[in-house]
Design goal:
The complex is a heterodimer of chains A (401) and B (277). Chain A is an alpha+beta fold and 401 residues long. Chain A is built from ten helices and 20 strands. In chain A, a hairpin with a 2-residue loop joins β12 and β13. Chain B has 277 residues and is an all-alpha fold. Chain B has two domains: 31 residues; 223 residues, MetI-like fold. Chain B is built from 14 helices and two strands. The longest helix of chain B has 34 residues. Chain B is globular and about 70 Å long. The chains are: A alpha+beta (401), B mainly alpha (277). At the A-B interface, β6 and α2 of A face α10 and α11 of B. Bound molecules: adenosine-5'-triphosphate and magnesium ion (MG). The site of adenosine-5'-triphosphate has 11 residues of chain A, from α1. Adenosine-5'-triphosphate binds next to α1 of chain A.
Chain lengths: 401, 277
C-alpha cells in the first residue's frame, strides 16, 4: 500500500498537475452513455500516454465496464469521442480498432486449444503458418504455459486461463490494452502474483493500457495514474500518491482504504477542530473564515499518546477513549471515541449545508493503526484515555453536492 | 396404509419396491412398444431370409426407400440451415414481433400432418392460390418437390428447437472477444460460434431426418402416391398392405424400424461425444 507521510501543512486541494508532455496515445473526450432513459456515464474524459497504465477504480455498477466497451467499440457512446493514436475511432467497428480486451470472464474460445486461442488473431489475419507458430511459441513462453499448449480452456485453472487471454491479446500487437477486472475471480495470492507479472509485462510491451478494478490496493499498485469513478463520473484523476494522500472528495477518501473524517471550521487562516487549532495553508479563494470543512486523515496518520506530550510533527486534535482493539496482521487497529468537540457553528452555516444528509455528519469515532513496535512500546487497553494527534491530513470543502 | 407400505418395502434389508417397479415398467412397455416392434421382425423373417431379401429388392421398394432418403435429405439440409439462421437472428436481435415469430416457427409440429398436406395442396395445387399461376408449365404438386415441401413443413421447427437454446446460453462475450481481436462477423461465426453448435446441429439434423423419413399424413396428400414415381417408403408400406402383400410391406417396415433405431442411438451418444471439449 502506498504510504503518505507528509508534512502537517496540507497541500491545498488542487487538480492533478498537468501531464508531463508525452502525447496521449489513447483518449476519451466528453463521453456519456445512456441505456434507455437512465444515464450511466457523464462527461468522462481522460488521456493515456504511450506505455502508461491508467486504472479505472470504482464500485460495482459505477460504469467501468461500459467505458471499456465504448473504447473497444462494443458499445456506442451517447455523446463524446474516442481517439486512439490521434485518430477518431468513435464510428469504427470493434474489429478495426486494433484494441486488445482482456474480458472479466476471460472469454476464451472453448473449442480451441491454448495454442489455437493464442494464434487466433494471426490466423484470421491470414498470416503464414510458420510465423503463427513462432509467435505462439514465443507467447507461450512469455506467459509460462508451454506444457499446457494442447489443453482446452476448461482444463486450465483460472490464473492460467487469464494468462492465455493475455497472450491471445498480445499476439496481434494491439495498440491499446484494456483489462476488465482480470483478476476478479482469483484468490488474493494469485492476484498479487499475476498483478506483478502484468506490471512487468506492460512495461515490456509499451502500449497504453486501461485497467479496471474495484480493488483499491490493485489500483494503487498497478496504476501510473488512477481515475476514481463514482456513479458514472470521475471523482478524481491522479497518481496513486495524490489520490491516496490528497483525496479531492469524501468519496475518494473513503473509497481508497480507511479514512477518518472530522468536521472543522476555518478560522484565522487555520482550522479549528473542536477545541484544537491546526495551522494549515489554505487556498483563500476556496476557503474563508467561518466555512465548515472536513478534514480527512488515514488511520496510520494518527498518533496516540498517554501523556499531554505529543511527539514533534504531530498536532493534537482531541482526547479520546479506546473502544476497541484488534490485530490486523502487522498492525494494531484501534477504534477511539473522541471527546465531543465543538461542531461547526450553525448560525454561520450557509443554507445549503443545513440540508446535509445524516451520513455526511462528522463521526466522532475514529480508527487508528499502530505498527507492531509502537504497539509493543506503549501498551494500550480498552477504556484507556489517550491524547489523539495527527501527522498529516487533507482538507475537503464540506460537501459540495 | 403407510405402515403397510413401509413394512413391504424392506424384507430383511432387501428393497422390494425396486425390482417390483422395474418389472412393472417393463411389463407395461411390453404390449405397447416391445411386442409391436418385435412382431415386425418375427413376421418379416418367418418365411425365410431369402423371401425377405426378395421383397426388399423389388424395384418399387428400392425406389421408395431411395425417394424417402433423398427427399428427407433435402428437407433436412434446408431446415438445418434455416434453423441456424433463425436461431441466430432470434437470439441475437431483439425486435418487435420476435416472440410471435418464435411461436410461428414452432407451429408446424402442432398441426396435424394431414392438415399440413392439405394446406400445401391448397397453395400449390393446380387450382391453388399460387399453384394456378404455375400450371401447366410447371407442376409442384404430385412430384418429389411436393414431398420435400411437405417434409420441410412438418419438420420445420425441429432443428431450430435444438439449436436455439444453445445460442441462447452461449456467452455473447465470445463473439465480442472475436470481434475485438479483429475477426469479421463471418469469421466469428465460422471459427467461434459454429464449433459450439456442432452437437446441436448434428442432433437437430438427425431428428429432422428421422421425422421426415417417417412422414406419411402430408406426403400421401401431396405426392399422388404413384408407385415408382412419388411413392415414399411409408406410402409403399401402406399401399402393399392394402394390396394384401404383407411380406413386401413388412420388408420395408423392418428397414425403416432399424433405420430409426440407428438414428436414435446415434442421437443418444453423438451429442455428448461431439460436445466434449
Ligand atoms: N446493456 C445494458 N442495458 C442496460 N443497463 C446496462 C447495460 N449495461 C450496463 N448497464 C448498467 O450500467 C451501469 C454500469 O454498468 P457497468 O457494467 O459499466 O458497471 P461496472 O462498473 O463495470 O460494474 P462491475 O464492477 O460490477 O463490473 C449498471 O448500473 C448497469 O446496470
Ligand atoms: Mg464490470
Amino acid at each position: 500500500m502506498v504510504k503518505a507521510r507528509e508534512t502537517l501543512i496540507p497541500k491545498p486541494v488542487e487538480p492533478a498537475p498537468a501531464l508531463v508532455d508525452p502525447p496521449a496515445a489513447a483518449s476519451v473526450v466528453g463521453l456519456s452513455k445512456r441505456f434507455g432513459k437512465t444515464s450511466i456515464l457523464e462527461n468522462i474524459s481522460f488521456d493515456v500516454a504511450q506505455g502508461e497504465v491508467l486504472v479505472l477504480l470504482g464500485a460495482s455498477g459505477s460504469g467501468k465496464t461500459t467505458i471499456l466497451r465504448i473504447i473497444a467499440g462494443l458499445e456506442m457512446p451517447y455523446t463524446g469521442k474516442v481517439i486512439l493514436h490521434g485518430k477518431d475511432v468513435t464510428e469504427l467497428p470493434a474489429r478495426e480498432r486494433g484494441v486488445g480486451v482482456i474480458f472479466q470472464a476471460y472469454a476464451l474460445f472453448p473449442k480451441m486449444t491454448v495454442e489455437k486461442n493464442i494464434g487466433y488473431g494471426l490466423r484470421i489475419r491470414k498470416r503464414k503458418r510458420k510465423e503463427i507458430k513462432e509467435k505462439v511459441n514465443e507467447l507461450l513462453k512469455l506467459v509460462q504455459l508451454e506444457e499446457h499448449r494442447k489443453k482446452y480452456p476448461s482444463q486450465l485453472s483460472g490464473g492460467q486461463q487469464q494468462r492465455v487471454a493475455i497472450a491471445r491479446t498480445l499476439a496481434y500487437n494491439p495498440e491499446v490494452l484494456l483489462f476488465d477486472e482480470p483478476f476478479g475471480a482469483l484468490d488474493t495470492q494469485t492476484r498479487v502474483h499475476l498483478r506483478r507479472e502484468i506490471r512487468a509485462l506492460l512495461r515490456k510491451v509499451n502500449v497504453p493500457s486501461i485497467f479496471i478494478t474495484h480493488d483499491q490496493e490493485e489500483a494503487l499498485e498497478l496504476g501510473d495514474r488512477v481515475a476514481v469513478l463514482n456513479q458514472g463520473h470521475i471523482e478524481q484523476l491522479g497518481t496513486p500518491l495524490e489520490i491516496y494522500s490528497h483525496p479531492a472528495t469524501e468519496y475518494v477518501a473513503t473509497f481508497l482504504g480507511a479514512a477518518n473524517l472530522l468536521e472543522a471550521t476555518v478560522q484565522n487562516g487555520g482550522l479549528q477542530v473542536g477545541s484544537a487549532h491546526l495551522t494549515a495553508m489554505l487556498d483563500h479563494t476556496q476557503f474563508q473564515d467561518g466555512d465548515c470543512v472536513k478534514i480527512v486523515f488515514r488511520p496510520e496518520d494518527v498518533v496516540l499518546s498517554t501523556s499531554e506530550f505529543v511527539r514533534s510533527g504531530a498536532a493534537k486534535i482531541s482526547a479520546g477513549r479506546i473502544e476497541e482493539i484488534s490485530f490486523v496482521g502487522a498492525y494494531e487497529r484501534l477504534r477511539l471515541r473522541l471527546d465531543r468537540g465543538e461542531e461547526c457553528r450553525a448560525d454561520e452555516t450557509p443554507y445549503y449545508l443545513t440540508t446535509e444528509t445524516p451520513e455526511s455528519q462528522p463521526t466522532k469515532s475514529i480508527i487508528a493503526t499502530r505498527p507492531k513496535p509502537d504497539a509493543a512500546a506503549t501498551k494500550l487497553q480498552i477504556g484507556d484515555r489517550v491524547v489523539v494527534a495527527i501527522t498529516s491530513f487533507t482538507v475537503l470543502p464540506a460537501s459540495k453536492r | 396404509m403407510s405402515t403397510a407400505v413401509s413394512a413391504m418395502r424392506h424384507v430383511r434389508g432387501f428393497d422390494v419396491v425396486r425390482p417390483l417397479s422395474i418389472g412393472m415398467l417393463v411389463f407395461m412397455m411390453l404390449p405397447l412398444v416391445f411386442l409391436p416392434l418385435a412382431s415386425i421382425f418375427i413376421f418379416g423373417t418367418s418365411n425365410g431370409l431369402d423371401k425377405f431379401w426378395a421383397a426388399l429388392m423389388a424395384p418399387e421398394a428400392i425406389f421408395a426407400l431411395k425417394l424417402s432418403m433423398a427427399t428427407s435429405f433435402w428437407a433436412t439440409v434446408f431446415n438445418v440451415i434455416f434453423g441456424l439462421f433463425a436461431a441466430y437472428v432470434l437470439s441475437r436481435y431483439n425486435f418487435w414481433g420476435r416472440n410471435a415469430l418464435i411461436v410461428t416457427i414452432s407451429l408446424p409440429t402442432a398441426i396435424p400432418t394431414a392438415v399440413a398436406g392439405f394446406a400445401l395442396l391448397l397453395l400449390w395445387g393446380p387450382y391453388g392460390t399460387l399453384g394456378r399461376f404455375l400450371t401447366p408449365n410447371f407442376e409442384i404438386m404430385f412430384t418429389a418437390f411436393a414431398i420435400i415441401l411437405a417434409n420441410i413443413f412438418v419438420t420445420f421447427p425441429l432443428a431450430f428447437g435444438v439449436i436455439k437454446p444453445v445460442f441462447d446460453t452461449m456467452s455473447r462475450s465470445l463473439e465480442e472477444a472475436s470481434a475485438t481481436i479483429g475477426a469479421t462477423r463471418w469469421q466469428t461465426f465460422w471459427h467461434v460460434t459454429l464449433p459450439s453448435l456442432r452437437g446441436a446441429i448434428v442432433s437437430g439434423a438427425l431428428l429432422t431426418f428421422a421425422r421426415a423419413v417417417g412422414e406419411f399424413g402430408s406426403t400421401i396428400l401431396v405426392s399422388g402416391n404413384l408407385a415408382g414415381r412419388t411413392q415414399t417408403a411409408p406410402l409403399y408400406i401402406f399401399a402393399k398392405f392394402n394390396e394384401g402383400q404383407i411380406e413386401a410391406a413388412n420388408a420395408i417396415a423392418i428397414v425403416l424400424a432399424l433405420f430409426s433405431f440407428l438414428i436414435f442411438s446415434v442421437l443418444f451418444f453423438a451429442r455428448d461425444w461431439l460436445d466434449v471439449d
